[in-house]
Design brief:
Blueprint: H1 9-17, H2 20-34, H3 39-54, H4 76-79, H5 90-94, H6 106-218, H7 238-241, H8 244-251, H9 256-262, H10 267-273, E1 281-283, H11 293-303, E2 309-311, H12 320-327, E3 334-336, H13 345-354
Parallel strand pairs: 1-2, 2-3
Length: about 375
């Protein structure tokens, strides 16, 4: 132990007598290799173990079973991979004048230079990476702020445009409402004028219609009574030689079936039977028991423009075709359906639908069949 040559004699004797370097070496090696969780407790236990080995003796023996080795505090599981340490680090701890070290070799200098340059490059690279990340973060933040600013600016523009548009729409609505009021006023005036003119026209038309039907019922629309139906050379019988008005008066006493039969006698009688005044009043009551749909349909189809008064009272053999033909008589003023067994609710509604626009219509049903 060369490091003790510079120590004081008393201190050197004390260190050597108590084997302090070996004790320190064994404790430190055991502590560094085992690495216990509680180092103070480990040192305390190992010192107690040394005291037990020492017993009552004043010094530790360096030979025999109590030999103080450098690895005596290392457990067996660590001793397998442990190599013997050459020299001792205590010299560096206690040597006041260490020997000068040898100058480093060129290879060591190159390695140190490469290590330093690599370390410097690594530090520069990581500093550059940190700088790039910071720059990217700032750019991203600026981009987000720019997007927010653009969005805010766009919203402000939209709000301004919307407010302007809302004011314009409000003004246009006011103008449109004013125009609508004026148009409604003019339209109401025109409508009232048209309604009044239509009412006046309807009154005049109703008056003319009443006068027409009255004249038609009186027979004033036929030819003069002084004229004859045919000349002297064309007359075949006494009735044909009579004046027109006289012949009509005679035929007015005949019923519907008799008129139909007379129309088949000759040409002159056929012309007389086609006079409108003879078909103003059509009464089927005398033939109610045997008249059927085909007869009523035929007569109404031939003379429906002249029918003003129509009576189907107690005609039990009539059904839908007859009532449909009745609905086609647009000039009817008086209709008697009392006692018609074939009259139903739907048929009545049909007749009322077709006759709702005509004057002086009278429907007198006795009962309705279900």
């Amino acid at each position: 132990m060369d490091f003790l040559q510079y120590a004081e004699p008393g201190l050197r004797d004390y260190i050597l007598r108590n084997s302090l370097p070996e004790v320190y070496e064994a404790l430190l090696i055991g502590l560094l290799i085992v690495c216990p969780k509680d180092p103070l407790l480990f040192l305390e236990e190992k010192i107690k173990e040394l005291l037990r080995r020492k017993g009552s003796k004043t010094t530790l023996r360096l030979k025999g079973p109590n030999l103080l080795n450098w690895d005596m505090f290392v457990t067996d599981e660590f001793k397998r991979d442990l190599k013997h340490l050459v020299g001792s680090y205590l010299k560096q701890l206690f040597d006041p004048d260490p020997e000068p070290e040898e100058p480093p070799l060129i290879d060591d200098l190159e390695k140190a230079y490469l290590f330093y340059t690599n370390l410097l490059k690594r530090k520069c690279f990581w500093a550059w990476m940190k700088y790039r990340k910071e720059v990217q973060r700032i750019k991203a933040a600026n981009k987000r702020n720019e997007a927010k600013a653009l969005k805010h600016y766009s919203q402000r523009k939209l709000k301004l445009a919307f407010d302007t548009w809302a004011e314009w729409v409000k003004f246009r609505k006011w103008r449109a409402a004013l125009a609508v009021k004026k148009i409604e006023h003019v339209s109401d005036q025109i409508l009232l004028k048209n309604i009044f003119e239509a009412w006046v026209g309807a009154v005049k038309e109703a008056k003319r219609t009443r006068e027409y039907f009255a004249r038609l019922e009186r027979g004033d629309l036929d030819d003069d009574s002084d004229t004859q139906l045919f000349g002297q050379g064309e007359a075949k019988d006494d009735v044909s030689s009579l004046p027109w008005q006289a012949a009509i008066k005679i035929f007015m006493f005949l019923g519907i079936i008799d008129l139909a039969h007379c129309s088949q006698v000759c040409q002159s009688w056929k012309v007389i039977t086609q006079t409108s005044v003879l078909w103003n009043k059509m009464d089927f009551y005398p033939i109610k028991d045997w008249i059927k749909d085909n007869g009523v349909t035929y007569l109404l189809r031939q003379y429906r423009p002249y029918a003003i008064h129509l009576s189907l009272r107690s005609c039990t053999n009539l059904s839908w075709p007859s009532f449909k033909s009745v609905s086609e008589c647009r000039n009817l003023q008086d209709l008697n359906l009392s006692g018609c067994a074939g009259l139903t609710v739907s048929t009545t509604f049909l007749l009322l639908f077709f006759f709702q626009f005509f004057l002086f219509l009278k429907v007198v049903p006795q009962y309705w069949s279900r």
